[in-house]
Every structure is written in C-alpha cells, then in structure tokens.
Design brief:
The longest helix is centred in the N-terminal third of the chain and has 19 residues. A hairpin with a 4-residue loop joins β5 and β6. The chain is 36% helix and 18% strand. The strands form four sheets. It has a six-stranded antiparallel β-sheet with strand order 12-13-14-15-11-16. The chain is built from twelve helices and 16 strands. The radius of gyration is 23 Å and the shape is globular. It is α+β, with helices and mostly antiparallel strands and 434 residues long. α2 packs parallel to α8 and α11 packs across α12. It folds into three domains: 35 residues; 230 residues, Alpha-D-Glucose-1,6-Bisphosphate, subunit A, domain 3 (Alpha-D-Glucose-1,6-Bisphosphate, Chain A, domain 3, 3-Layer(aba) Sandwich), CATH 3.40.120.10; 137 residues, TATA-Binding Protein (2-Layer Sandwich). The structure holds 6-O-phosphono-alpha-D-glucopyranose.
C-alpha cells in the first residue's frame, strides 16, 4: 500500500505476482471481482466456501537477504566474500519514506559503514523533504553528507523505493538522464547491443550516449508502466530489451521480473562500485558517464486544462493533436517532429514502425526547434499529465536562453494562434517568457 509521491490522502494498492507488476487492466478486473463478491455476500448469495487462509510472511527480511545474496554472488570478493562492502562508506537518504531498511538490512550486513545516513525513520508527513530523487533538497543534503563523511556513494530513495538516485564520491548528483546513462553503461556491459526504453523526455545526449556504448534507445510514452510495458512488448517481439527507465528514477530490468525497483537499481550500482575498486580503476561510478552530453537548460512548464473536469481528457487530446497538426501543416516553421531515439541516431532502427514519430496515440509529441540558420536550438515535449488535468511542456535547450526563445515562439505562434489558449491556462508560459 502506498501513496508514492502523492499526498498521504491518496494511498493506493500496487499488485505484484511472480511475473511482475499488474497492469491497470488487471487491477480493474480484480476490483470488479471483489465488488461482485461483496454484492453477492451482501445479498446472501454465493457459496461461503472455506475461508481463505491468511498467513503472515516477513517479506522484507526475505527481500533484503535476496539483495544481499546478489551483491555477494556478483562481487565474489576474493578475500571477504560475506562482507564485500567492508571499507566502503555509503550514505542513504530515505527521506522518511520506507527505504531505511536498505541501510541496516543490506549495506551494514555486508560490511559497509553508513554513518551520516539521513532521515531513515518512516514518517508519512515527510518532515525534512519529499523522499524523491528529483527533489533538489534531497539531492543536495545527500551530497553534503557524502562530502562531509568522505563517502564512496550516496543513495536517495523515493517514498516506496520504486525510484532511486545516487550521488557519487565527488558529490555529483546522478539522477534523471544521468542515472539512466549510468544504468545503461552497466547493463550494456552485460548485454551488448541491448535496447534501452525510456520516456521521451530524455535528452538527445542520452540517445547518443547509449549509441556510443553500442546500445539502442527507444523513446516512449511517459508513465513508468508505459515504459516497462514497451520493454516487455519489445522482448516479446524479439528485440532484446534489458533496461526500461524513466527520467523520474523509475527503473526496471528484465533480470528482475520487469519490476520498477529502486533498491535493485542501487544494488547494481553498488556492485559496479566494488568491481571498479577491485579492478583498481580511477574514479567512482560517476566516471562511467563523464562523456554524457547534457542540455544547457531544462525547463518544465504546466498549463492547466480549464473547464469541467469531465472534458479535460478530450481537451488535452485536442491541444496535443493541435501541436502535431501545426507542425505537420507547416504552420510552425522551424519546428520538426522527432522520431524515436533509435531512428534519430540513423542506424537500423529496432523499434516497431508504428511508434514513429514517438507516439501515435495523441498523448504526447516531441519536436525539435531550428533557428533561421538551421541550427538546432533545442526540443520540446508536449503531453497530457498522467495524473492531473494539465498539459506538461518539457523543454531542453542546447544553448543558454534557448528555452525562453522556444517558449516565446510556441506562445505566439501556437498557443495564441491555434486558439488552444481558450481552454488552457497559459499563465506559467507567459510568466516564463517575460
Ligand atoms: O504526468 P505527471 O503529472 O507529470 O506525472 C508523471 C509521473 O507520474 C508518476 O510519478 C509516475 O509514477 C511516473 O511514471 C510519471 O512519470
């Protein structure tokens, strides 16, 4: 049971089986069955049968031991097999979510020194900061602790540990695209040529990084289940896909039942850290992504969908489709719709042709902006929010000031000109372009 990153009043249930996490269709079936049973029982219908057997199972201990075993086996330390983390200092910042167990039940039992770890006790009011690897305070406090304690690694978990981020020994934050790059470097070493699926907010630099390591990059729809489901589908279609990650820090691996499991991601990074030390390589895990090119600026702006909530989805679709049509009908010169990551590096694309350009279902589009000299200035990703009635505009610029130029252009030549401003609250964009 978790509210994840949402306010505590919005708790929900996530279901998992041996085959992975259930989809919303599965969950709907479960809820319908439960509702039918409830009604039948209320009406005195249906067999009472034998009552279900309820068992108390200590899943957390089993899970921690599983993680410890993986680290021991894969490091296979030549002198101290059972304590492969002896001599390492690791800071954990659980942000008062439920990730504290990783400190005492995984790292310390393997010999690590976790002195200086932060906010390990669960407290649903999150008195310090949001447990979130995207949260600037969470990352900077962890950075301070890593530097103050001379730690080899800092780990940041979100509330329910399905997302994570890390800080390397120099204090550099590794989250978002950087975390995907780090995981890609690790996974591509184990599975050369594998496909990596991410959401389409990821940068061009990440696509090039994956390609430079011999991998393929599929950009897909935002929402961790969408990204994971795409990876499952690609595997079923015969495209080997070992890593599925969102820029939010959700990450799933084929070897781990396609589960978005932040602790498992950190386990992979910890193993790499120890291996690098054993191989006497210079630098911490951050050195694996030194050549990742990053955008000069990244900006996220939101536009609330106005009017009655029941019309929000339809209006959102209209706005996103209008964006695509404006570009395709050449009403927005300079803007070009983006292909999926794998085609944009210009090699034999492995992604199903239905996914070009990036999304066919009118949820989101991504476009690049070129200036009058046909120099690319940056890109924008336009989509409906997964949770709330708003349109998210993610912009990345290759040059300082580029996001403002792109937002200004979109505001004048698309938001106002197309009339979508009649049902979108564009104030955030207007404030940004001033
Ligand atoms: O659409 P938004 O409101 O930006 O939220 C998008 C995000 O929602 C949740 O956090 C999901 O777990 C993420 O997978 C997704 O990226």
């Amino acid at each position: 049971m978790t509210a994840s990153h949402l306010p505590y009043t919005r708790n929900g249930l996530k279901f998992f089986t041996k085959r992975g996490g259930l989809t919303s269709v599965d969950v709907e079936k479960i809820c319908n069955r439960a509702a039918q049973k409830y009604v039948a029982r209320k009406m005195g219908l249906g067999s009472r049968g034998t009552p279900p057997v309820v068992m108390r199972v200590d899943l957390m201990s089993a899970y921690s031991q599983h993680l410890r075993d993986i680290i021991k086996q894969r490091v296979a330390h030549p002198t101290h097999y059972d304590t492969p983390l002896k001599g390492f200092k690791v800071i954990v910042n659980a942000g008062n979510g439920c990730g504290g167990f990783f400190t005492w039940d995984v790292l310390e039992k393997l010999g690590a020194d976790t002195t200086g770890s932060l906010h390990l006790e669960p407290d649903g009011m999150f008195p310090n900061h949001m447990p979130n690897p995207e949260d600037a305070t969470a990352m900077s406090l962890t950075r301070d602790a890593v530097l103050a304690h001379g730690a080899d690694l800092g780990v940041v978990f979100d509330t329910d540990v399905d997302r994570s981020g890390v800080v390397d020994d120099t204090g550099a934050a590794i989250n978002g695209d950087r975390l995907i790059a780090l995981m890609s470097a690790i996974v591509l070493d184990e599975h050369p040529g594998t496909m990596v699926v991410t959401d389409a907010r990821a940068s061009d630099g990440l696509t090039r990084f994956i390609a430079s390591r011999g991998g393929h990059h599929c950009l897909y729809r935002v929402g961790y289940r969408n990204v994971i489901d795409k990876g499952v589908q690609l595997n079923n279609d015969g495209v080997e896909t070992h890593l599925m990650m969102e820029t939010t820090g959700h990450g799933a691996l084929k070897e781990n039942y396609f589960l978005d499991d932040g602790a498992y991601m950190v386990v992979k990074i910890v193993i790499e850290m120890v291996r690098m030390k054993l191989a006497e390589l210079d630098g911490g895990v951050g050195s694996l992504i030194m050549d990742l090119e990053e955008p000069a600026e990244s900006v996220l702006l939101r536009m609330n969908i106005l009017g009655e909530p029941k019309h929000a989805k339809q209006r959102g679709t209209m706005a996103v489709e209008a964006f695509k049509n404006y570009i395709q009908e050449d009403k927005l010169s300079g803007w070009v719709l983006d292909d999926c990551g794998d085609c944009s590096v210009g090699e034999g694309c492995l992604v199903d042709t239905n996914d070009h350009p990036i999304d066919v279902d009118a949820y989101m589009y991504r476009a690049k902006f070129y200036n009058e000299n046909m120099r690319p200035l940056g890109m924008v990703h336009v989509r409906q929010s997964v949770h709330n009635p708003n349109i998210a505009l993610n912009m990345q610029s290759y040059l300082p000031g580029g996001c403002k130029s792109m937002a200004r252009d979109l505001h004048e030549r698309f938001l106002l000109a197309s009339g979508v401003n009649e049902f979108l609250d564009t104030r955030e964009v207007e404030k940004f372009v001033k």
